[in-house]
Amino acid sequence: MALLPGQLLNQRYQIHALLGQGGMGSVYRATDTVMQRVVAIKERTPDANATPQGLQQAHAQFQREAQILGALSHPNLPHVYDFFNANGNEYVVMEFIAGQNLYDAVTASGAINEGAVRAWADQALDALEYIHAQNIIHRDIKPANIILKSDGKVVLVDFGLVKLVDANNPNTATAMRGMGTPEYAPLEQFSPGMHTDARSDIYSFGATLYHLLTGRAPLDVPRRLLNPRQQPTLRALNPKISSVMEIAVEKAMEIQPQARWQTARAMQNQIAQLKRASSAPLPTTAQTSLAPATLPMQNTRACPHCGQPNSSGEIYCQACVHKLGVERFCADCGTAALPAATYCVECGRGL
Q1: What per-residue confidence (pLDDT) applies to 75?
Q2: Which H or E run contains 163?
């Protein structure tokens, strides 16, 4: 039964309104009458089909998850204040984050300026690197689960599908089970028997950036597998996107986990190239008249940007992460250049 406005939960939390509801429970806005602050309360209802042993295991897992989430401290994550059981349900009390979720933002405005997305991505990837270091996987990253506050800060919310990774058993089950949202879920989350890890979150975050930058949600993995060419590239949908950002997102959204960025920090470092490129001085006449650099041809499997040899199975250079098979790249911003070009069309640097 839903909690009602004015109801006092656990003799402390006065319910104001239902914020959201899903198959696994509900989220309410409430006031903590002891601390006199507005909070968000997540209610999780037990599985009606679970055995008594299953319910006991789920309860123990819930307590462990709540304790670990309560110990997190990062400016782009909500604080967890309390957790308890009441009326047969389980509750987590969290910081209430006022703002607009990025799904609503992109729905209202369409494709969002890359500069804004880059700033949000830097914050969110920092939060992901932090939780992954604590052996926590979010497993439901999407625009609706990132809140933009009035001060420009973004907060990653809704850990309802969180998985706690056991180093001794990478396939550790979670009580808060689910596959996430199809458009943003990686291949490994479509099957309960497949292993998920930090790279699963990286796929979901790449899919989130794809939506923000193009104004269009990506195709889900099954449809991409049926027709790999069906999903348009970012720059086909939004030519204003830089190639550095396109590379970062495409690599994050690789179907196979081993082809993605292996850490959030690696992806963050790639996107940081955009900031360096945008702050570079404008080229001089002498710089723009330089002859094109001579780089290895694409059929050698050497990276056309840095010359690093790569095995035939590599999609991205293992040294500089540029996509293989393009003849030349700008050394500052990573934009692909035609063989006869003397300057970069993206940032103006002489080639």
Answers
A1: 95
A2: strand 163-164
pLDDT given at position 55: 83
Residue 43, Ramachandran bin (φ over 0: left; ψ between -120 and 50: alpha; else beta): beta
Please tell me the distance from the alpha carbon of residue 17 to that of residue 245, in angstroms, as a whole number. Answer: 39
Q: How far apart are alpha carbons 51 and 63 in whole angstroms?
A: 18
Q: Which of 32-41, 58-67, 251-260 has the lowest mean pLDDT?
A: 58-67
C-alpha 123/C-alpha 241 separation (Å) is 19
User: Which residues are within 8 A (CB) of 49 and not within 5 positions of it... i.e. 6 or more apart?
Assistant: none
Q: State mean pLDDT over 185-205.
A: 88
Q: Which residue has the tokens 């027709």?
A: 227
3-state secondary structure (DSSP) of residue 210: helix
What distance in Å separates the CA atoms of residue 210 and residue 184, rounded to the nearest whole number?
A: 10
| Integer Cα distance of 135 and 105 in angstroms | 31
Residue 111 CA to residue 216 CA, distance in Å, equals: 8
Give the other-Cβ count within 10 Å of 116's Cβ.
13
Please, what is the angle between helix 114-133 and helix 198-214, to 10°?
A: 170
Query: How far is residue 76's CA from residue 96's CA, in Å, rounded to a whole number?
Result: 13
pLDDT in tens, 15-46: 999 988 876 678 999 999 999 999 999 898 88
- Residues 258-315 have pLDDT tens digits of 999 999 999 999 998 876 655 445 444 333 333 333 333 334 456 655 556 666 555 5
User: Would you name the residues annotated as active-site residues?
Assistant: 140
The pLDDT score that the predictor gives to residue 204 is: 96
Q: Is 104 exposed, middle or buried (0-12, 13-18, 19+ CB in 10 A)?
A: middle
Whether pTM > 0.90 for this model: the answer is no
Contact 317, 334 (CB under 8 A): no
Domains and CATH numbers, the chain: 8-95 (3.30.200.20), 100-278 (1.10.510.10), 282-351 (no CATH)
